[in-house]
Write a structure and sequence with these properties.
This is Peptidase M14 domain-containing protein. This protein is of the alpha/beta class. It is built from 9 helices and 10 strands. It has a 10-stranded mixed beta sheet, with helices on both faces.
Length: 304
């Protein structure tokens, strides 16, 4: 699909407010944030501290935002941030964060303060969407004065902690719908011509080009490879149109692009990209891959 066939807007012209309103009317609720996410968060209240750090307030609905924190928070320990659901449609990011919280957070709290924001974009989760109701991509909006409520809320909360982070792990997916829906929609919104890239068949990481920490990324890839397959590069040695830095790893200018992984000064950062549409990958496998990322990243830091 190219922007010339996208059903909203005028080819070659950026969307106006009417186009964005038209887009919003075509979105619909497909699953429940309350039932599938908040319920799981509340089940962990006996083990972890649950804090509401904000609320999204849209015409499309109000959504409370939650973090989970390890109980024995101590400023003498390094602090780790785990984020999921920045793109709400990327399901294993949300449930991988929650699974880690349930199964491993307490173990690692011996070494770290851990802050988990499992679902930064709950409306996106419910509508299986990359954007928020205002047709803004939260994962291009992590900068001062952000236009995205989702991005602004978590940035303000992390700033309020007044702690330096040692690591930030942002959990994402790359899906076939990136080519079938989200990239065409982006081109239509921006009035540009869409050119799809090859969807990598497997897991990969996106590192921050300003602090790539190649050994850190490799340790994660080696661990995830025991759970799910790592994406091979294409014929141009690229993944999603970006040169591969090492097997399963590409670099992005995170802060320049307004990416979630770029908004802190943590020295160890990575963005995961699980591939849920692989015929060989189950939903459970995708969740376990996300958990493997977190545990291997923390193990690496412990063993420095």
């Amino acid at each position: 699909m190219t922007n010339s066939t996208y059903p909203i807007g005028t080819p070659g012209t950026k969307w106006n407010n009417n186009d964005k309103a038209d887009w919003l009317t075509r979105q619909n609720i497909k699953r429940s944030y309350q039932n599938e996410v908040v319920t799981l968060i509340n089940e962990l209240k006996d083990e972890l501290n649950v804090e509401q750090y904000g609320e999204l307030n849209y015409v499309a609905g109000k959504y409370p935002l939650f973090v989970l924190k390890t109980a024995d928070f101590n400023t003498n320990k390094p602090t780790v941030l785990i984020t999921g659901g920045v793109h709400g449609y990327e399901t294993s990011g949300v449930h991988g964060a929650l699974r880690f919280a349930k199964t491993a957070a307490q173990k690692y709290s011996l070494h770290f303060n851990i802050v988990i924001a499992p679902c930064i974009s709950p409306w996106g989760y419910e509508t299986i969407n990359r954007w928020n109701p205002e047709a803004i991509d939260p994962n291009r909006s992590f900068y001062e004065g952000s236009p995205a409520q989702e991005s602004a809320a978590i940035m303000a909360y992390v700033k309020s902690l007044e702690l330096d982070l040692i690591a930030h792990i942002d959990l994402h997916e790359t899906t076939d719908s990136d080519n079938s829906e989200f990239r065409p929609a982006l081109a239509a919104r921006e009035g540009t011509v869409n050119t799809n890239w090859n969807i990598p068949d497997g897991f990969y990481l996106v590192a921050d080009s300003t602090k790539p920490e190649a050994a850190f990324q490799k340790a994660i890839i080696d661990s995830v490879a025991k759970v799910t397959h790592i994406a091979p590069s294409d014929e141009n040695n690229q993944l999603i149109g970006v040169p591969q830095e090492q097997f399963g790893v590409i670099n992005y200018a995170a802060r320049e692009l307004g990416l979630c992984m770029g908004f802190t000064n943590a020295p160890y950062v990575t963005t995961t990209e699980v591939y849920p549409d692989s015929p060989t990958a189950s939903d459970e496998e995708c969740i376990l891959a996300q958990v493997a990322v977190i545990t291997s990243a923390l193990d690496y830091i412990i063993n420095l």
